[in-house]
Amino acid sequence: MKNIVIGRYIPGNSFIYRMDPRNKIITMLILMIATFIINDFRVMLIALLLTLLLLPIGKISIKRVYLGLRPLMFLLLFTFSFQILFNTQGPIVFDRELNYSILNLLLIATIVFAWFFTKRYVPFKLIYFLFTVFIMLYVLINFELGNVFNTGNIRIYQQGLELAFFIMIRLIIIVTLSTILTISTKPTDLNLGLEHVLKPLKIFRINTEEIAMIIAISLRYIPTLLDEANKIMLAQASRGVDFTEGKLKDKVVQIVSLLVPMFIISFKRSDELANAMEARSFVPGRARTKLQELIWTRMDTIALCFGVILLMSSLIMRVI
Amino acid sequence: MAIIDMKNVSFQYTANQKALSNINLTIQRGEWVSILGHNGSGKSTLSKLLIGLLKPSEGEIMVDNTLLNAETVYDVRRKIGIVFQNPDNQFVGVTVRDDIAFGLENLQVERKSMVDKIDFYAKKVGMYDFLDKEPSALSGGQKQRVAIAGILAMSTDIIIFDEATAMLDPKGRKMMLDYMKQLNQDGVTIITITHDMKEAVLSDRIIILKQGKIIKDDLSEAVLRDKHTLEQSNLQLLLPLDILFELEQLQLSNERIKEILWELSLNA
């Protein structure tokens, strides 16, 4: 419980850290839009390279970005293979026949078993998985063991291949950029930046200041409530509730024994907090001055201009 | 000069039970008043009425010659600060600095004077070195000191301590009492709501509430000696006074008294 980190801010110092949060959000959005406009493969690679270059320049831990990407690996792989297998436009770049025979299928089953039982000993699981898939395809294409009772074709089309790479690089760029944002900006600064960036929503009568206040208070109280949850879990454990094991039915009981007191405590807390805030002259919706100051530096202007230039050039390239 | 004047104030949460009935109370500027009472005596309701978190069902409240009503409630809140019991539930900011700033931001103080005020009052309560700390890194007493700094920064004339020391350890409690003393010397009107006699001893005047009624309103010295009233409202006599009364009743020789005191101190 103690290890939960709110946001992924890591203290550091570089020009990215010093940038105005408003600008960080806007520039990030511009760059993300640019990656969606780019439709040339070489330009896309340059964009990826530029994004990855930001990491060493901005002194942002590459490991952290990788950790941010890892949960998305499955999604990346899925969209990649989906595009490759089911997009049937453009010229064919790869066409092989797959041989299905009983012995072949048995061999494949053996490979799957071997993969399944050895994968826990291999450090790079994804690469190992891809390697296994490759071996399986290789077997199906090149081996003709016994009676081949059926054949099928594997065809990869040019557009499928291109789109697959495009989507993958786009996702990588987007995740890297947003990870850079969350790593280099304190949650409170991010919140303040968002409040300013979302100000135009006032036209739709959405009070962004109130939303920002709600987020700020949530940020403030998450650690307190986690602490509380810990205490309740200990208290319930001392009464015999076992949080570590149990069947689904027991789990439900465990969670209820945690949630009910949590809800009651949270409501009581929020009531007292509301009183304390009102007592200190807080009036919802009334203008407030701000202690936190957002400073727009020359670096911000440069970064913003850079982002706009990239966006413009990708637009122009697409039109040409 | 009266800074708080309550006339015939009543309040009820539900239709048939009055939390406070017919309260008449005048508090002078610069006074230190303790409001004593057991749980459910209506003492916290009283503080919520004063700051306009609750609206009296009957009667009127004047704060610094302003009648408290829906229009003036925000002006009144500029004059009264309140420190609540639970240090965690009144800490609004993510850091100490943010929390002291919260009230100032609400009063629309300009950023520059805000920064000066935060530094000044953080120094005053001895929390200057903790300005960038998060509440989870502070003790209960430190959080309450931050709460005091936040109220001092708003320069209110009255500070209510609503059982503000109840959740603190002895060290934190002592420190809070020292701040109260100092603030009172600086001319701040102080109202402490408590059921701790040791806290009440320090004040000029004690008001005892029981079931929503004022049953005693007198100078501290007089109230503290009033064994009958204190027992009636489930409050404990201060230990030294308790011993004194017991000994007076027994009419013993000095030698015997010394012996008894010696035994007591050994057993305590």
Description of the structure:
The complex is a heterodimer of chains A (320) and B (268). Chain A is mainly alpha-helical and 320 residues long. Chain A has twelve helices and two strands, in the order αααααβααβααααα. Chain A has one domain. In chain A, 68% of the residues lie in helices and 6% in strands. The longest helix of chain A has 32 residues, at 248-279. Chain B is α/β, with parallel strands linked by helices. Chain B has one domain (2-220): Rossmann fold (3-Layer(aba) Sandwich), CATH 3.40.50.300. In chain B, β9 (205-210) and β10 form a beta hairpin. In chain B, α3 (96-106) crosses α4. At the A-B interface, α10 and α11 of A face α2, β6, α3 and α4 of B.
List the helices and strands and how they pair.
The complex is a heterodimer of chains A (320) and B (268).
Chain A: H1 15-18, H2 21-37, H3 41-57, H4 62-69, H5 73-86, E1 92-101, H6 102-118, H7 125-142, E2 148-157, H8 158-184, H9 187-197, H10 208-238, H11 248-279, H12 298-319
Antiparallel strand pairs in A: 1-2
Chain B: E1 2-11, E2 20-28, E3 32-36, H1 43-50, E4 58-63, E5 66-67, H2 73-79, E6 80-83, H3 96-106, H4 111-124, H5 140-153, E7 158-162, H6 170-185, E8 189-194, H7 197-201, E9 205-210, E10 213-219, H8 220-225, H9 227-232, H10 239-250, H11 254-267
Parallel strand pairs in B: 3-8, 3-9, 6-7, 7-8
Antiparallel strand pairs in B: 1-2, 1-4, 4-5, 9-10
Helix pairs in contact in B: 3-4, 3-5, 4-5, 5-6
* Uncertain runs of chain B: none
Q: Give the strand order, joined by hyphens, for the main sheet of chain B.
A: 6-7-8-3-9-10
- Please report the total strand number of chain A as a whole number: 2
Strand content of chain B: 15-25%
CATH homologous superfamily identity of chain B = P-loop containing nucleotide triphosphate hydrolases
How many separate domains make up the residues of chain B? 1
Strand order of the largest sheet of chain A: 1-2
Question: Which oligomeric state applies?
Answer: heterodimer
**Tell me, what's the shape of chain A?**
flat
What is the number of helical segments of chain A per DSSP (H or I, 4+ residues)?
Answer: 12
Radius of gyration of chain A: 27 Å
Strand percentage of chain A: 5-15%
Q: What is the count of DSSP helices of chain B, taking H or I runs of 4+ residues?
A: 11
